[in-house]
Amino acid sequence: MMFLQGLRKIIKTVLTERKIFFSSIPLNKSDETCFNLLKSRINFAGPLTVYDYMKEVLTNPVSGYYVTKNVIGKQGDFITSPEISQLLGEMVALWTLNEWTKLGSPKPFQLVELGPGKGSMMHDILRVCKQLKLDEHINVHFVEVSDELSKAQGDKLCTSVLKHDNKSYYQEGKTENNVPIYWHKAIQDVPKNFTCILAHEFFDALPVHILKQTVDGWREVLIDLTECCSKLRYVISPAPTPACVFSKYSNGRDYFEISPQSGLILEHIACTLEEHGGFVLIIDYGHDGEKKDTFRGFRNHQLVDPLVSPGTSDLTADVDFAFLKNVTKDKLLSFGPVPQRSFLKELHIDVRLQVLLKNCKNEKEKNDILSGYHMIMDSDKMGECFKVMSLFPSVLKELFNDYPVVGFVNK
């Protein structure tokens, strides 16, 4: 644990290799606050790890991308599956309720969503629970660092919202059907009860270290200023850094990203589930330990250089599901990852699609539903690049031999 905490410190190494990559687009005025903060840190303590760079750019309380902007939707920089189609949230609701019932329907049922976006998926989940008359047993907990997004979530889901300063939750509200919702800054603040944890496009936004195998051994990719100090560039550490210990997760790759924070979060989740029961569903674009270079930026729904105009674009890296499975294997059973398309097919999404189409009031509504369906299902869109994985306490192994986890039967 002490070692992993040490990875968060700024690496104060003077670098020798200084011409690997240059950003070529000049900064705009709107980027100056974030860039100047980064420049000050680099001038004071040396080049940043990609981990520290992502953390600064995305979550700095003054200039952080997630903290200061409403970034999701057509007017933002990216759009998530629940914003595209209600079908995803409805299928997740049915999967969640099925697995909860299989485990004896323990009450109260605590639903936790990590990084809930605009609240669209939880909105669809709670609608299904209401229709099935199960929402009276549910309480919802969001883990959200963005004040902008927490406001949007409250507006979408609650009839009223209260702010708090001195509690484990900083905001609370109730839906029109009296389902309580609480907002937390960290998962460690969520009450320890039987819990279903949902993480849709959450782990991809967590900071990563980037490691590269060289003729001298494993080295870390860092971020420095150009010699004129007007732009950012990648450089390679001349000596191993603390993060190089994670080279054991390379899976034969000579260049890869690793997210220790993801490991710490899942370690906490694993201990909680082992003690109190529950399960996890992760949906994200990612891979099973085979991809190399996936660090990138998104602005206005387009791929951009992650070092250009810091603070104005989303930074992300594909989730390494093999790593997530590895760090929880002593406590949790893992199922998947499977492509989102196959997961939703096994949940009979097409049956629900036909019901929605049958109830359409006009051709536009029908086309919108079909468009959303194809976006989350087609192989050349989100159907294959998005993966789904679930985690359960290891004590349930014999149960799943007789009653497999839905969505992963054909894996």
Descriptive keywords:
6-stranded antiparallel β-sheet; 411 residues; disordered N terminus; alpha+beta; 35% helix
General description of the model:
This protein has helices spanning 2-6, 32-45, 50-59, 65-68, 81-84, 86-102, 120-131, 147-157, 260-276, 321-328, 340-346, 349-358, 363-377, 382-385, 397-402, and strands spanning 17-22, 48-49, 109-114, 138-143, 160-163, 171-174, 180-184, 195-200, 209-214, 217-225, 232-236, 255-258, 278-287, 296-299, 302-304, 314-316, 319-320, 332-339, 386-393. The protein has 411 residues and is of the alpha+beta class. The strands form 3 sheets. Strands 3, 4, 5, 6, 7, 8, 13, 17, 18 and 19 form a 10-stranded mixed beta sheet that branches. A hairpin with a 7-residue loop joins strand 5 and strand 6. The longest helix has 17 residues, at 86-102.
Q: Topology, pairings included?
A:
Elements: H1 2-6, E1 17-22, H2 32-45, E2 48-49, H3 50-59, H4 65-68, H5 81-84, H6 86-102, E3 109-114, H7 120-131, E4 138-143, H8 147-157, E5 160-163, E6 171-174, E7 180-184, E8 195-200, E9 209-214, E10 217-225, E11 232-236, E12 255-258, H9 260-276, E13 278-287, E14 296-299, E15 302-304, E16 314-316, E17 319-320, H10 321-328, E18 332-339, H11 340-346, H12 349-358, H13 363-377, H14 382-385, E19 386-393, H15 397-402
Parallel strand pairs: 3-4, 3-8, 4-7, 8-13, 13-17
Antiparallel strand pairs: 1-11, 2-10, 5-6, 6-7, 9-10, 9-12, 10-11, 13-19, 14-15, 14-16, 18-19
